[in-house]
Amino acid sequence: MAVRLRLTRKGKKKQPTYRVVAAESRFSRDGRFIEIIGFYDPAPDPSEVRIDNEKALKWLKSGAQPSERVQKLLEVSGAWEEFTGVAPTLTSATPKKEKRAAKKEKEKEAEAGSSEDSAEKPKADAKEEKEADNQKADTKEDVQKEDAPKEEEAEESDTKEDAPKEEAKEVDTKEEEAEDNNEEQEDAKEDTKEQEKNNNEEGAESKDE
User: Fold this and answer.
1) Pair (7, 85) in one structural domain
2) H/E element holding 20?
3) 144 and 63, same structural domain?
């Protein structure tokens, strides 16, 4: 008959307590057991452990094998050291309150870091927007500078194109004035010839009389 030292669960839902028992390995965890040798409550800080070392040593010497959790509890009570003659290398357990406090501090640090990141992000976005606006303004100025010579060249070219037209217009005006002067001179000559002719005819008539 193989006997094991193990835990059986008791207590309320979500508030478990355990008995340390000697039971046959063929029975279920919370089934039949031979003898109760201790009690374990993990809820308090630190945990509550009560082991009857005499009963535990009796079963260990008779060949009972403890589970891993029960072996740790026997190390805490000192029964395992009496059985093996070797002092257990127990790590200093951190109380649950300290663990919770450390966890809360880490969470606060993480929240503070995230809030700082969120505060810095709008600043970074505003800075990027400002830089983008400055780049746009610089680009616009460059475009205006590039367009200014083109506009001046266009105005000069328009002026040059209009100059020959104005010169041609002036030439036409001068030609028209010259033609008008010629016509006036010719009309004056004709009037003079007619007047001389009339004078000659009048002179001839007076001689005939």
Assistant:
1) yes
2) strand 15-24
3) no
Integer CA distances (angstroms), 84 to 57, 61, 89, 117, in order: 10, 10, 13, 56
Q: Hey, what amino acid is at 123?
A: K
Tokens representing 207 are 């001689």
Provide the residue range defining the domain that includes 60. Answer: 3-93
Angstrom distances, CA of residue 67 to CA of 85, 95, 97: 19, 24, 27
**Token pair for 29:** 């965890």
pLDDT along the chain (209 residues), means of 10: 84 86 79 86 86 88 88 88 73 58 82 68 72 78 65 64 63 71 76 77 65
Domains in the chain: how many in total? 2
pLDDT at 161: 62
Tell me which of 76, 93, 110 is where a domain ends.
Answer: 93
What whole-number distance in Å separates Cα of residue 19 and Cα of residue 13?
16
Amino acid at site 162 = D
What is the rounded end-to-end Cα distance, in angstroms, of the chain? 194
Q: Helix 53-61 crosses helix 68-77 at what angle (to 10 degrees)?
A: 130
83 assigned to some structural domain: yes
Q: Give the span between the Cα atoms of 61 and 54, in whole angstroms.
A: 11
> What is the full DSSP assignment across 32-89?
--SEEEEEEE-SSSSPEEEE-HHHHHHHHHTTPEEPHHHHHHHHHHTHHHHHHSS---
Does residue 204 lie in a domain region? no
Residue of 73, 69, 3 whose CA lies nearest to 34: 3
Q: Are residues 30 and 68 in the same domain?
A: yes
